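Reader question, answered in our methods column.
A reader sent in the components of a multi-part assembly and asked whether the whole thing could be modeled at once rather than chain by chain. We filled in our standard form and ran it. Here is what they sent:
COMPLEX SIZE: two components
ENTRIES:
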Amino acid sequence: MTAEAADREARSLLTHVVEPATVGVGRLVAQYGAPDAVARLAAAAPSGRARDLGRPEARAAAAESLRQFEAEGGRFVVPGDPGWPSQLDDLGDESPFGLWVAGRGDLRLLALRSIAVVGARASTDYGARVASLLSTDLAERDWTVVSGGAYGIDASAHRGALAGRGSTVVVLACGVDVAYPTAHEALFARCADSGLLVSEAPPGELAQRWRFLDRNRLIAALTRGTVVVEAARRSGALSTARHAADIGRTVMGVPGSVTSQASVGVHELIRGGATLITSADQVITEVAGDPRWVDEPLPGLADVAPLPEALGLVLALLAPRTPLTVEQVALRRELTMPEALALLAGLELRGLAARSSRGWVSVLD
Amino acid sequence: MTAEAADREARSLLTHVVEPATVGVGRLVAQYGAPDAVARLAAAAPSGRARDLGRPEARAAAAESLRQFEAEGGRFVVPGDPGWPSQLDDLGDESPFGLWVAGRGDLRLLALRSIAVVGARASTDYGARVASLLSTDLAERDWTVVSGGAYGIDASAHRGALAGRGSTVVVLACGVDVAYPTAHEALFARCADSGLLVSEAPPGELAQRWRFLDRNRLIAALTRGTVVVEAARRSGALSTARHAADIGRTVMGVPGSVTSQASVGVHELIRGGATLITSADQVITEVAGDPRWVDEPLPGLADVAPLPEALGLVLALLAPRTPLTVEQVALRRELTMPEALALLAGLELRGLAARSSRGWVSVLD
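And here is the structure of the entire assembly that came back:
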């Protein structure tokens, strides 16, 4: 087995047996690599479900689940893959071990120009209408909409993006082959047709209540900014905004009637510093200060047309807030320094990477 | 005739013949005093209505209008009067020559704890309801509501304040004895019963379109902060907010539906830096950072109970942004330095004045 295959299998196993955002495990993986981390965890004889890390039958089952998922057209994307959305690295030790992805879109490319449109399940007609209109306008401007799969604002956002003939990404707390809520089975299928279903939970995993809050960090990290459309005080939708703020993403809110409980949380968010927005253009201007993104959208970024592979491999290494030196890029991609520099410059020309005083970053914020 | 009476008559004449906020005239008055300024202007043979400044019959008519207004229970308040709201001095050369006041309230005391609640004439049901609820809550917390006399948000604000058994101040662009719009005659009478009607236009003066924008500077300057409830893009209500920002008052806005044209101007205001507010408590906290004002309202400030006269005379000199030295206070009130200092300290103890590095100011912001 190649080192790459071993890494993928170990990460697949981790998604099966370790709860998302378990920081200690993330640190072990970052330090020793996934296969060695799994071996160390297994040797430490963990309790509960994590004991599976050491059982041959659990390893075999995880490998089989991976094989079968890919045979059915799905992808398991891990750090270092060309398709890995490197902005997730901003989550540090809480970055997912890997993402299970189903659908036609390219996750990394879709995420490059993406906005999270989130809000309460218990939305009002007003909230549902605004989420839908906003998402249609974003889609028509070639921005990807990212949201959860819940009733209310999430579903309205996806429907709006589909109406705008755009791509929309559903980030699920259950496996991407589990339609939860079941009423959204057809909606999810339509989203997968032009966009993606994404989860850090492996196929077949059912929705667990505690996973929704962890899932929200992925929505925040995948996107350049989060728009909260409606949220009551202490609504779970606000956790996406908190995650977004924590990792330096732009947080925005749609105002509503002060007499509506469904807007109370959004108004608090705006009073706390989030930007009040009333249109897709304001959202795009807010997240993409560089007017290139607003006035002359780079063609094809939201399409599936890929970058030259060599560029894509380098871009996949870069994160917006964790600069890499040319040496680090050269080392990780087995390039000479001049080759690495040429590829980084190519990304810079395309507006996808930028040189900071501490190294190279992707330009996601 | 005493110097004081001559000043009042000259200022009364100025309100009759000079348009509000005519900066050159304000500067002359500040430099030479009102009687001398009138003489100089008359000698300069001005054109138009201002020629009346030199005509004996115009002077006699202005004096008679003053005498009659006061005989009917009105007051003409000028700078230096104990009842003068000294925060108007923040308007500099655009400060009014004097204010014509009708009603039971004490303008200076009412204005000390006051909030402007303003907005569009073409308000929605939502805007009218929120303006009214907000004003009721402000009134119940002993804050004075100040607004214009127009249909829409203005009228709803006054009605709400009256419902809260509070004082409300109507700042008119016409004379305080002219009910404009006429449909508000009964409303204005009720406002005068517990609050005030105020104008810089003399009695009998009809509403002129161009006066409304000038009037807005008085609403902004009299109050500690301005709340815009509803305003379409480029609504005149936004001019009150601009005046408020210009003189360092707090500007606040009530959010609404992003699909409502009546909220577009308010949302722009908030995006430009105004504070989103959703309740009277938020308004009070915003304008009165000092928690004394919020948690333990000073008793009686909004009532008619007057300060000891000596304190009132000194307080009337002070403005929030134009510090006076103890010497200046002593000179203007014909006090010894220790007397002036004792009175200033008395005001400080009551939370009405504060010592800054450049002198004494009133604590209106």
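What stands out: The radius of gyration of chain A is 20 Å. Chain A touches chain B through 20 residues (CB under 8 Å).
Send us your own complexes using the same form.
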